[in-house]
């Protein structure tokens, strides 16, 4: 019966087969068992077993030195037990790391999914804040443009007033020239402008404050997303390519675990085969005359001669009493069984080095696989820790999110309040512009009214002048008639009668009314009073006043006052 399923029979390998050394590969290490030693059961009868004469011919010539050498080599090969134990530890550690990695990966995925959902909500909140900020910015720019336009129109109107000089007719004698702007209070315009500047300053302050909140919110989101990206990168580390040419991401973790488990079992089977081979070597040495003593001596020499070599001890299988019993102290054995035993020992001895090398190679591959799994486990653990850090960071951002939402509400409310105040002040500015425009139009109308009144006075004066000329003509004609009448009848009329006839002709005088009287007349005219604004002196001069020659004073032009009744500087004249 063979020790491994792939070995067809104990006689499959003969001492003359001379097997070539085999190097482990991905297939030989993890898919099929490595070559193992033959069975040590001498009672097995294989189909192609050589006859007894062949065995006697081959095995009778095996010297005891060769058997002892194989015994010591077999004993030294058993030191690979530490490698097998190491392989078992690696496989156990790999399973534990895999179990913990599965738990950590599940927790990490759950946390990451929840964090991403919260990040989406925060991004929606951020987009809402951005819309409020963008709307406010657009409205702010529009408000500034409208205010600049309104202020430009107002300033243009004020320039018209500043460039319009008041005519001399509206100024007092000796008064310096003035413009229309001198009759209004410019402080009103400055007050409106200062109020608008204050409103704009408040809007800018609200915008700056909200902009700072948005910047802090963006920083929090960027920090969180960067941390999530870093945590995701930790779960997929860029490790180096393994010795067999395959990167770890192309070899699944289950295949690595299965390979390590198979390698551990294969190494255990190899160790079991080496143990059976050692037992067969011990039996062969014991059944050979002088073999026990030579074996102990060679073991002692090997231990003392090479300090770097692993100490070889066979005291557990060949005692000192057994080796000191003399050449006759060996166990007798059936010759046929002994020949078969020697045949198996010699055949397996050629494979010991290959089996030991295979154990080393399998362990080396397991070490690399364990390192790969450990790197993946470390990545999972680091990713889990980084995801936990993201979760704690999300908690901090969530605690500040309420302040960001409150900042948005405050910005919207302040923006609304300041817009209403700006609208009120802009309305005042438009009213000032309309007032100044009406003021300028009223001044133009005032100039026309002055010219109209001057024309009326000129017409009145012309009428009175013509009337005086007619009166003077009548008076002159009356004088000539009187003289002619006196010359004709004066000598005949008694003096008593002549005194009544000789009374002088009565005279009429038209004199201008003083300015105060003119204002009162204008006021009476406005209230339905007398229309005639000239003082009428009626009655002919009596005979007693004949010697007084009264000449009417020359009418003078009535000046139109600059201000209306009770007017003063800065008030409208009408």
TrEMBL record:
It is found in: Cytoplasm; Preautophagosomal structure membrane. Residues 516-527, 534-552 have a biased composition (Basic and acidic residues). It is a peripheral membrane protein. Residues 1-17 have a biased composition (Low complexity). Residues 1-59, 516-574 are annotated as: Disordered. InterPro entries: Atg17, ATG17-like_dom. It comes from the Eukaryota. Residues 77-492 form the Autophagy protein ATG17-like domain. GO terms for biological process: autophagosome assembly; autophagy of mitochondrion; piecemeal microautophagy of the nucleus. Autophagy-specific protein that functions in response to autophagy-inducing signals as a scaffold to recruit other ATG proteins to organize preautophagosomal structure (PAS) formation. Modulates the timing and magnitude of the autophagy response, such as the size of the sequestering vesicles. Plays particularly a role in pexophagy and nucleophagy. This is Autophagy-related protein 17. It comes from Sordaria macrospora (strain ATCC MYA-333 / DSM 997 / K(L3346) / K-hell).
């Amino acid at each position: 019966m063979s020790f491994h399923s792939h070995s067809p029979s104990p006689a499959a390998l003969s001492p003359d087969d001379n097997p070539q050394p085999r190097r482990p590969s991905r297939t030989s290490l993890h898919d099929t068992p490595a070559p193992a030693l033959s069975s040590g059961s001498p009672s097995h009868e294989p189909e192609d077993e050589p006859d007894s004469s062949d065995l006697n011919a081959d095995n009778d010539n095996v010297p005891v030195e060769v058997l002892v050498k194989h015994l010591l080599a077999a004993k030294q090969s058993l030191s690979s037990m530490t490698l097998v134990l190491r392989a078992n530890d690696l496989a156990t550690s790999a399973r534990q790391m895999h179990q913990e990695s599965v738990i950590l990966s599940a927790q990490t995925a759950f946390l990451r999914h929840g964090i991403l959902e919260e990040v989406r909500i925060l991004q929606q909140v951020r987009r809402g804040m951005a819309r409020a900020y963008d709307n406010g910015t657009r409205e702010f720019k529009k408000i500034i443009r409208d205010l600049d336009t309104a202020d430009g129109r107002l300033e243009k109107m004020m320039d018209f007033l500043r460039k319009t000089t008041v005519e001399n007719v509206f100024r007092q004698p000796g008064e310096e020239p003035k413009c229309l702007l001198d009759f209004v209070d410019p402080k009103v315009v400055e007050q409106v402008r200062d109020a608008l500047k204050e409103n704009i300053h408040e809007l800018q302050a609200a915008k700056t404050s909200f902009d700072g909140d948005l910047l802090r919110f963006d920083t929090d989101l960027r920090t969180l997303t960067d941390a999530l990206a870093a945590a995701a990168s930790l779960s997929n580390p860029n490790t180096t390519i393994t010795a067999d040419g395959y990167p770890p991401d192309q070899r699944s973790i289950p295949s690595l675990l299965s390979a390590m488990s198979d390698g551990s079992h294969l190494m255990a089977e190899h160790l079991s085969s080496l143990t059976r081979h050692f037992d067969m070597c011990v039996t062969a040495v014991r059944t050979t005359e002088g073999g026990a003593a030579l074996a102990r001596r060679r073991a002692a020499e090997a231990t003392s001669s090479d300090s770097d070599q692993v100490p070889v001890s066979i005291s557990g299988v060949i005692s000192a009493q057994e080796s000191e019993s003399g050449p006759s102290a060996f166990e007798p054995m059936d010759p046929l069984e002994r020949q078969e035993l020697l045949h198996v020992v010699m055949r397996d001895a050629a494979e010991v080095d290959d089996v030991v090398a295979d154990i080393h190679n399998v362990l080396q591959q397991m070490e690399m696989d364990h390192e790969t799994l450990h790197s993946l486990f470390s990545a999972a653990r680091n990713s889990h820790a980084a995801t936990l850090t993201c979760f704690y960071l999300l908690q901090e951002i969530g605690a500040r999110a309420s302040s960001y939402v409150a900042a948005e509400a405050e910005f919207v409310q302040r923006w609304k309040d300041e817009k209403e105040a700006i609208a009120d002040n802009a309305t005042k500015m438009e009213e000032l512009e309309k007032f100044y425009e009406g003021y300028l139009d009223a001044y133009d109308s005032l100039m026309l009214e002055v010219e109209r009144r001057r024309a009326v006075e000129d017409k009145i004066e012309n009428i009175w002048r013509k009337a005086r000329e007619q009166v003077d003509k009548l008076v002159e004609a009356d004088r000539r008639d009187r003289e002619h009448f006196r010359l004709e009848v004066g000598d005949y009329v008694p003096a008593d009668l002549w005194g009544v006839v000789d009374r002088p002709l009565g005279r009429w005088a038209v004199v201008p009314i003083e300015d105060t009287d003119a204002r009162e007349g204008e006021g009476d005219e406005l209230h339905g009073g007398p229309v005639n604004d000239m003082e009428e002196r009626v009655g002919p001069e009596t005979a007693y006043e004949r010697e007084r020659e009264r000449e009417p004073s020359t009418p003078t032009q009535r000046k139109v006052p600059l201000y209306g009744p009770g007017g003063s500087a800065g008030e409208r004249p009408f």
